[in-house]
Design a protein that fits this description.
Layout (H helix, E strand, L loop, with lengths): L1 H20 E6 L13 E8 L5 E8 L10 E5 L8 H6 L4 E4 L9 E4 L9 E5 L9 E2 L6 E3 H18 L8 E6 L2 H17 L8 E7 L7 H4 L1 H7 L5 H11 L11 H14 L16 E3 L9 E3 L22 H8 L2 H7 L18 E3 L6 H7 L5 E7 L7 H10 L3 E11 L2 E11 L2 E8 L6 H4 L1 H12 L5
Parallel strand pairs: 4-7, 4-10, 9-14, 10-11, 11-15, 15-18
Antiparallel strand pairs: 1-2, 2-3, 3-7, 3-8, 5-6, 12-13, 16-17, 17-18
Helix pairs in contact: 3-4, 4-11, 7-8
Length: 469
């Protein structure tokens, strides 16, 4: 009788712990949005790792077309340490903030007309641990790396697809922007290798999507000098001098090379007043909120206009895109919002959109070029898109590493259009049964879907439908 009771107790304990490690809830309404959500939103946590100490938060939006047959796109944000709410509210997600009619207490939400969820099931994940609402049950769990993050993401997807078996046969794509360019190719390789090894569950991986991806710690930085020259931010004379004196290497500079050091310092000085995310937009001190140690309700906006929820005209010198990120910070820290999202109480203190500086993070993957090369031996396909006005991860560097793969040019450089206007330029590469499409987005910044949502949506819709851009 005693043994039976102990077994029953242990079974209940296991069930309790597993239910806490993986939980999901349907969200029908959200504070700030008028009425019921016209799409199916699910939020939840999945515990990953051996002890499931790391709890990754996610938001899942079913396609508003045909959820049962539309592709499933997993989406990660950059940083590392930025919440997936960055894309959810400021990029490809279903909602955005109303900057004109929001009130001071709680910002107002409206539908994003260019959401990718019109044609895709989208799974937004807060990763690495510490980003967004993701957390660790142990202090040690917060010490993480690029490789640990990829391992956690793979474990997450294994558990998520088992728990959502109705999507197991949907085509799977993984994607992200900026620093997620480090995670995505490695994760794609891990998923592909797992499939080849017969690991369960089996994923119907079809490809990956990257926006202005961080790829190589040398190329991404080194390409800023030729990119700045193309954008006429530095003179022809200075660029020629730097190229000759530095021999094209502006990163690993020999300190005895005084001419190169002087040229690079002059270049740094010239672009120091430029907004590298979008060179045509003003360089502003980032707007952010500071939680009061005594009372969260007493918040201040530092280095931005005091009345931050009053509309700032986009043609004003005072306007800065970063000011708009204040809205999500106010929203996500509201108790009613956390309750609606089913955020676990006591697991997250003050929420920030990009928790970059506070992460105990080690970058142990310096380049993913070899992963792209390995993936070219598969039957997958890839879409890489960049902005022509982004100096933080210049398209020049992206095109350079793509060319280094020595693929065959399958579709030559040409314009692509939205509403009969040039939206960007594209070319496609081929290696056996692998296809990689490169696309620029005209006039956009880092990342393009936040700057040119209509154009990027049309690009995505065509690419996923196997149409030419």
């Amino acid at each position: 009788m005693g043994i039976t009771w102990i077994c029953s107790y242990l079974l209940l304990l296991i069930l309790f712990l597993s239910s806490f490690a993986t939980s999901r809830s349907i969200v029908k309404t959200l504070p700030g949005f008028d009425g019921d959500l016209p799409f199916k939103l699910e939020t939840g946590y999945i515990g990953v790792g051996e002890m499931e100490d790391v709890q990754l938060f996610y938001s899942f939006v079913e396609s508003q077309r045909e959820p049962s047959s539309d592709p499933l796109l997993v989406w990660l944000d950059g940083g590392p340490g930025c919440s997936s709410f960055e894309a959810f509210f400021y990029g490809n997600g279903p909602l955005s903030f109303d900057y004109i009619y929001s009130e001071e207490r709680l910002p107002t939400l409206h539908l994003n007309p260019d959401t990718w969820t019109k044609v895709l099931n989208m799974l937004f994940i807060d990763a690495p641990v510490g980003a967004g609402f993701s957390y660790s049950k142990s202090f040690d769990g917060y010490y993480t790396t690029d490789r640990k993050t990829v391992a956690n993401l793979y474990n997450f997807l294994q558990k998520w697809i088992i728990d959502h078996s109705e999507f197991a046969e949907n085509q799977l794509y993984i994607g992200g922007g900026s620093y997620a360019g480090i995670f995505i190719p490695v994760l794609a390789q891990k998923i592909y290798d797992g499939n080849e090894a017969g690991l369960k569950p089996h994923f119907k991986l079809e490809g990956y999507v990257l926006g202005s991806p961080k790829t190589d710690s040398y190329l991404d930085v080194n390409s800023k000098v030729p990119a700045a020259h193309r954008l006429t931010l530095i003179s022809d004379e200075l660029y020629k001098s730097a190229r000759a004196s530095c021999n094209g290497n502006y990163v690993n500079i020999d300190t005895t090379n005084e001419r190169c050091m002087m040229d690079v310092e002059a270049i740094d000085e010239l672009i120091s007043g430029i907004n590298t995310n979008q060179v045509l937009e003003p360089l502003c001190t980032s707007g952010y909120l500071k939680p009061d140690k005594e009372d969260w309700d007493q918040r201040i906006l530092t280095r931005t206009p005091n009345n931050f929820l009053h509309p700032l005209p986009t043609n004003s010198a005072l306007w800065c895109r970063d000011y708009e990120y204040v809205f999500v910070e106010i929203w996500a820290n509201d108790p009613s919002v956390r309750e609606a999202l089913h955020v676990r109480e006591g697991t997250k203190g003050y929420w920030t959109l990009c928790n970059v500086s506070d992460l105990a993070y080690t970058k142990d993957i310096l380049s993913t070029i070899d992963y792209h090369r390995n993936l070219s031996k598969t039957r997958l396909r890839a879409l890489i898109y960049c902005s022509d006005l982004d100096l933080s991860i210049p398209h020049i560097g992206t095109q350079e590493w793509i060319r280094s793969l020595n693929f065959t040019l399958d579709d030559s450089w040409r314009a692509w259009f939205v509403d009969a206007q040039v939206a960007g330029y594209t070319e496609r590469y081929k290696y056996d049964n692998f296809y990689m499409t490169y696309s620029s987005v005209k006039g956009a910044g880092h990342i393009a879907d936040a700057y040119k949502p209509k154009e990027v949506y049309n690009m995505i819709d065509r690419w996923f439908a196997y149409y030419p851009l």
